[in-house]
Amino acid sequence: MALFTLNRENDIIEKIKNNIEINACLKYLYKEYYGFLERMVLNNSGSKEDAEDVIQEVFLAVLQIIQNDKFKGESSLKSFLYAVAKNIWLVKIKKQKAEHKRLNIWIEENPEFDADINDQIKKNEALELISDVLGSLGTVCKDILSRFYYENLSLKEILPFTEFENEQVLRNKKSKCMKALTEKLEQKPFMRESLYKALKIF
Known about the structure:
CATH topology of the largest domain: Rna Polymerase Sigma Factor, Chain: A
CATH superfamily of the largest domain: RNA polymerase sigma factor, region 2, helix turn helix motif
Order of helices and strands: HHHHHHHHH
Shape: flat
Keywords: DNA-binding, Sigma factor, Transcription, Transcription regulation
Number of strands: 0
Protein name: RNA polymerase sigma factor
Largest sheet: none
Structural class: mainly alpha
CATH architecture of the largest domain: Orthogonal Bundle
Oligomer: single chain
Number of helices: 9
Distance between the termini: 50 Å
Radius of gyration: 22 Å
GO biological process, one term: DNA-templated transcription initiation
GO molecular function: DNA binding; sigma factor activity
Pfam family, one: Sigma70_r2
Strand content: under 5%
CATH class of the largest domain: Mainly Alpha
């Protein structure tokens, strides 16, 4: 490992340990190690969405470990992150396999469980994801976009449900909501991929 990298890692560890510039430290970890950790998950039967979840857990866990002075420095920070990520992913895989096995057993014991029910479960999960994404824009935007795109209501029909003066003001607000959604999805490509997959279910 290059001396510069080693010194940088030691600096990051000390800052985390002393709760200094935590946001800057997290940005550094994401920039330096996200791709490395993502490849580990992808190479072990995971998806990009799985990787995103795992990496978030990894960084939170590592922050706590370092701040609790449990990181002894016996390995590089990169190796430590890899070990934590591998452990978290293995636990998730085991849990997924157990849940899949239980589901198969339940289906065998309940022959009335059919494809229609399974499809509805997927739709419910997709709706929950869509609701979460729109909810991140705020209550007003979520309400407008949900009614317009998923209830197929016109702006004229939506207007009575809002506090806007007229249809033009509502149209302007809808445009701002769509712009905010586009910007959010551009900043978070993994959220964008998940949303598109959810929309394809309908």
